[in-house]
Each structure stands twice: as C-alpha cells, then as structure tokens.
C-alpha cells in the first residue's frame, strides 16, 4: 500500500485540465507525473514491488498512456510488453473490440499472436492504463486478452475516477488495483 504522503505527492504531480477534450471533462494529465523523475520512479517502483510475486508473463498496456507505465513496468519485472492499440495501428492480423468512452466511442485491437511466445499454455497478463473512468476501455481490453488466449489476472490503473464506477464493473471480471482513487 502507498503511504498517504506519497499518494498526495503523486496526486499533486498530476495536472488537471478543465474542459479537455470537450466541455465538462476534467482531464487528468499524467505528463506532469512522468516528467517528474521522483514521481515516475515512485510509481514504477511501487508497482514493481506489488507485482514481483504475481507470476506474470506479460503486461498489456492500453494506447497510449498505458504504454508508458506498462513498458517501464514490464522492463522492471523482466517480462514482455503487449500493446493494445486503437483500430488500424497494428500491422499484423488483429482481434478487435468496440467500446464506449466517457467522451465518445472507439475500437481497440490486439495482435492475434500477442501471447504466443509464452512458456505457459495460458499466460498470466496484467492489464495497465493510466486511468479508469467508465471502464469501457478496460473491459474491451480484458476481452481482447481473453480472446488472444491469455488470462487477465489483474487490471491496474494510476487513477480511478470512482464516481464513474468503471472499477466496480471491472471487478466483476478481474481483480482491480488503483494507486489513486478520486
Ligand atoms: P473509460 O473507458 O471511460 O474508463 O476511459 C478510460 C480511458 O480514457 C483511459 O485510456 C484514459 O486515459 C481516458 N480518460 C477517460 N477519462 C479521462 C479523464 N478524465 N482524464 C484523463 N484521461 C481520461
């Protein structure tokens, strides 16, 4: 568990932008967490400690901010990283899922063979993104992980916007861990 003063430090490192990308949205901008070397290192080191004992085979990160935390953590844990990308960005054969967002809708994809180089028949995957709001993106990503033949053992978010209840919905599917519950 993160100590309250560390939580406050991380929370204070995240910039708030009102009415972006559209009126009414309070956007949590994590670029000011990752350009702060103490905040970024605290975040990745904390997640490394948590997940060292999980017997993970891969981290799957959601485009684009999930790539930043996911790739850093995968390197720290010495496991592979799998990108889940917006439609049309992955070059090989994909599986795709449509979903709704807090602001709009979208479609994400994973490579069909993303988890094929694992030692296990059903590899353990940690799903990661910067933020969970309605949970539409994370649920679609968990579906993709399953369809690609792996098990989503937990989903991890830096920020959980509790009022939007995405984490609650996601908990019916997999364990959920968030650093900052707002
Ligand atoms: P959702 O599918 O509603 O849980 O939305 C989560 C996705 O949208 C994540 O990839 C977030 O990066 C992004 N997102 C949604 N709401 C916000 C917000 N208020 N601030 C920053 N990112 C957001």
TrEMBL record:
<dbReference type="GO" id="GO:0044209">
    <property type="term" value="P:AMP salvage"/>
</dbReference>
<dbReference type="InterPro" id="IPR029057">
    <property type="entry name" value="PRTase-like"/>
</dbReference>
<dbReference type="InterPro" id="IPR000836">
    <property type="entry name" value="PRTase_dom"/>
</dbReference>
<comment type="similarity">
    <text>Belongs to the purine/pyrimidine phosphoribosyltransferase family.</text>
</comment>
<dbReference type="GO" id="GO:0005737">
    <property type="term" value="C:cytoplasm"/>
</dbReference>
<keyword id="KW-0808">Transferase</keyword>
<comment type="pathway">
    <text>Purine metabolism; AMP biosynthesis via salvage pathway; AMP from adenine: step 1/1.</text>
</comment>
<dbReference type="GO" id="GO:0006166">
    <property type="term" value="P:purine ribonucleoside salvage"/>
</dbReference>
<dbReference type="Pfam" id="PF00156">
    <property type="entry name" value="Pribosyltran"/>
</dbReference>
<feature type="domain" description="Phosphoribosyltransferase">
    <location>
        <begin position="39"/>
        <end position="179"/>
    </location>
</feature>
<dbReference type="InterPro" id="IPR005764">
    <property type="entry name" value="Ade_phspho_trans"/>
</dbReference>
<dbReference type="GO" id="GO:0016208">
    <property type="term" value="F:AMP binding"/>
</dbReference>
<keyword id="KW-0963">Cytoplasm</keyword>
<protein>
    <recommendedName>
        <fullName>Adenine phosphoribosyltransferase</fullName>
        <ecNumber>2.4.2.7</ecNumber>
    </recommendedName>
</protein>
<dbReference type="GO" id="GO:0003999">
    <property type="term" value="F:adenine phosphoribosyltransferase activity"/>
</dbReference>
<comment type="function">
    <text>Catalyzes a salvage reaction resulting in the formation of AMP, that is energically less costly than de novo synthesis.</text>
</comment>
<dbReference type="GO" id="GO:0006168">
    <property type="term" value="P:adenine salvage"/>
</dbReference>
<dbReference type="InterPro" id="IPR050054">
    <property type="entry name" value="UPRTase/APRTase"/>
</dbReference>
<comment type="subunit">
    <text>Homodimer.</text>
</comment>
<dbReference type="GO" id="GO:0002055">
    <property type="term" value="F:adenine binding"/>
</dbReference>
<keyword id="KW-0660">Purine salvage</keyword>
<keyword id="KW-0328">Glycosyltransferase</keyword>
């Amino acid at each position: 568990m993160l100590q309250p003063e560390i939580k406050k430090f991380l929370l204070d490192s995240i910039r708030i932008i009102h009415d972006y990308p559209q009126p009414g949205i309070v956007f949590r901008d994590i670029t000011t967490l990752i350009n702060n070397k103490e905040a970024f290192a605290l975040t990745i080191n904390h997640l490394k400690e948590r997940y060292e004992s999980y017997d993970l085979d891969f981290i799957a990160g959601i485009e684009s901010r999930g790539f930043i935390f996911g790739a850093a953590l995968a390197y720290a844990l010495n496991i592979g990283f799998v990108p889940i990308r917006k439609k049309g960005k992955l070059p090989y054969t994909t599986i795709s899922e449509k979903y709704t967002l807090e602001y709009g809708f979208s479609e994400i994809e994973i490579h069909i063979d993303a988890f094929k180089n694992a030692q296990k028949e059903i590899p353990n995957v940690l799903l990661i993104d910067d933020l969970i709001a309605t949970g539409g993106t994370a649920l679609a990503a968990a579906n993709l992980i399953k369809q690609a033949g792996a098990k989503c053992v937990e989903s991890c978010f830096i920020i959980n916007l509790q009022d939007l209840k995405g984490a609650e919905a996601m908990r019916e599917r997999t364990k959920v861990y968030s650093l900052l519950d707002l």
